[in-house]
């Protein structure tokens, strides 16, 4: 198990060296992201390049991914944007290292309730999933870096 | 002092409902008139729903200057007002954002924007953000269709204007127009709630 973790950490590490590209996903892929099968801690942030509070907190998620890479935390930055090119330019310019997905060809009225039944689509929002216990916590609105780290720290503690 | 504590407990209750209820919970609620708010299209005249004596209801839209989604909808909001005002359902736009957080959401900027875009409807300053809180609005744009019942207003639709904010050519469902078609036939909207991506409202504290 330790070996696997080590290899995973290495893999994550090697990804981090290159500039991250984004992956386009469809509605069906979203299910896998918001209901993951793995046992990591998943931090899924919904953002867009036009959303100022989202942009402000992106560096928090980037630092979080770096800081917790060895603690099995997986940060996913899920862009909800129709302008693919803008996402591409943005993540290149900002040298985003976390995994970026771009949801395409999906109507908000269909995919938003899949993420959380009480969510109406206002961003930013962040979904925390403890892969081991499958416990989900949904945070609406932006966060300070301290709030974000505290939240992840508390989930890390739960899994120990 | 008593008044203050009543106010505080009221505010607390509002907070509670906000945190425990989805916006869907607003459906069917019967609301009082809006407080008189400063209208950026009308030299700062104070306006509420009661000013529209002949209206049968309203298309109440929380919107603002800074949000790209709101901007994308400006022309469509003007079109909604033009279409439904003469049928008894004028648009009322309310900006609940704190200009301390978004300077372009201040009153003067609202006046300028309304002029540029030719707003045909009131563009009101929610200077406490309490109107947005009362309606549990979370984002801009966020639309509510209200039906007048005496001097009260019943919420019959909550959600988006249509299903494609940024690209009008990809609209496949015009939620508000469909809901209005049902309402004008005397029916309840068959789809009375929809979700859409939007900018979180930065409430005044």
Topology diagram in text:
The complex is a heterodimer of chains A (160) and B (205).
Chain A: H1 2-17, E1 22-25, H2 27-34, E2 41-47, H3 52-67, E3 73-79, H4 84-93, E4 99-103, H5 108-115, E5 122-123, E6 125-130, E7 135-140, H6 145-159
Parallel strand pairs in A: 1-4, 2-3, 3-4
Antiparallel strand pairs in A: 2-6, 6-7
Helix pairs in contact in A: 2-5
Chain B: H1 2-20, E1 30-31, E2 37-39, E3 46-47, E4 57-62, H2 68-85, E5 91-95, H3 107-117, E6 123-125, H4 130-134, E7 139-140, E8 142-149, E9 152-159, H5 175-184, E10 198-200
Parallel strand pairs in B: 4-5, 5-6
Antiparallel strand pairs in B: 1-9, 2-3, 2-6, 4-8, 7-10, 8-9
Brief rundown of the structure:
Chain A is an alpha/beta fold and 160 residues long.
How far apart the termini of chain A lie comes to 15 Å
Task: Tell me the number of strands of chain A.
Answer: 7
Helix content of chain A: 40-55%
Q: Kindly report the name of the CATH homologous superfamily of chain A.
A: Glutaredoxin
Give unreliable regions of chain A as ranges.
13-17
Q: CA-to-CA gap between the ends of chain B?
A: 21 Å
Q: In terms of structural class, how would the helical and strand content of chain A be classed?
A: alpha/beta
Total domain units of chain A: 1
In N-to-C order, the SSE pattern of chain B is HEEEEHEHEHEEEHE
Number of domains of chain B: 1
Main β sheet profile of chain B: 8 strands, mixed
Helix content of chain B: 25-40%
